[in-house]
Amino acid sequence: MNEPTTPFIYYTQDGRSVRQGHITVTPRAQVIGLRLPFAALIWNRPLGVTVTNEQTNSHHYQPITDPTRLVQWGLYGVVVLLLLINLRKRKA
Which of 15, 22, 35, 51 has its C-alpha lying 20 to 30 A from 5's C-alpha? Predict the structure, then answer.
């Protein structure tokens, strides 16, 4: 069995395509993870979907806004703000 060279996992993956008539929709996700000797932590986040119209031979990529990621970044910002306020109070 081949052992991975790095514990970090990072790649983009296309999901299973769904076809209805002449329209094909393919989801795309980003995989981020950490492989440890005793476990693996994997996080999949949606990036968008590719819509292919075979009748007109056109491709359209529609990005997906991940609300969970927006909330996480907002919470990170609040934590940093609170840490900065706490540091200023200690210096005064």
Answer: 15
Task: Note whether 10 and 32 are within 8 A (CB).
Answer: yes
Interval 33-58: pLDDT, tens? 999 888 899 988 889 999 999 999 99
Cα–Cα distance, 25 to 33 (Å, whole number): 26
Where residue 24 falls (left for φ over 0; alpha for ψ -120 to 50; beta otherwise) is beta
Whether the predicted model's global pTM rises above the 0.70 cut: no
> Which residues, in sequence order, are bridge partners of residue 29?
13, 46
- Residue 1 pLDDT > 60: no
d(CA 34, CA 9): 6
Collapse the DSSP code of 69 into the 3-class scheme (helix H, G, I; strand E, B; otherwise coil) and give the result. Answer: helix
